[in-house]
């Protein structure tokens, strides 16, 4: 059992790796926070971590990191999250760079 937990933790750590550029992306959830910003493109992150309640937070975090990576790729520095769902099967997050 310990071996499975260690392997699972290692896999999760690999999913949530961020770069300095991604760390600089500000994640916001209100339209006021992006007032005056230029819309670059829609972004989406999906993570289907099967594992129940314990992994919901990890799935959401990885979906956000996917979106941060997309935001950096188009030259953005702010990520506006417009819709997020998470549950026993993972997380799906949508937004705009």
Return residue spans where pLDDT drops below 50 for at least 5 consecutive residues: 1-14
Order of helices and strands: HHEEHEE
Q: What is the CA–CA distance across the termini?
A: 41 Å
How many domains? The number is 1
CATH class: Alpha Beta
The residue fraction in helices comes out at 25-40%
Q: What is the level-2 CATH architecture name? A: 2-Layer Sandwich
Structural category: alpha+beta
Principal-axes shape call: globular
Radius of gyration based on Cα positions: 14 Å
Q: Spatial order of the strands in the main sheet?
A: 1-3-4-2
Q: Number of DSSP strands?
A: 4
- Kindly state the mean pLDDT as a whole number? 82
In the CATH hierarchy, the third-tier topology is known as: Translation Initiation Factor IF3
- Describe the sheet with the most strands: 4 strands, mixed
Counted by DSSP, the helix tally is 3
Percentage beta strand: 25-35%
Please specify the SSE layout and strand pairing.
Layout: H1 2-15, H2 20-23, E1 26-28, E2 42-47, H3 56-73, E3 78-87, E4 90-96
Parallel strand pairs: 1-3
Antiparallel strand pairs: 2-4, 3-4
């Amino acid at each position: 059992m310990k071996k499975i937990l260690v392997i699972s933790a290692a896999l999760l750590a690999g999913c949530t790796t961020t770069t300095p550029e991604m760390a600089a992306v500000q994640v916001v959830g209100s339209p006021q926070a992006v007032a005056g910003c230029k819309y670059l493109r829609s972004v989406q992150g999906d993570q289907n971590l099967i594992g129940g309640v314990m992994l919901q937070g990890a799935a959401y975090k990885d979906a956000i990191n996917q979106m941060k990576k997309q935001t950096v790729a188009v030259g953005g520095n702010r990520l506006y999250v417009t819709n997020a769902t998470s549950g026993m099967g993972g997380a799906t997050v949508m937004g705009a760079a």
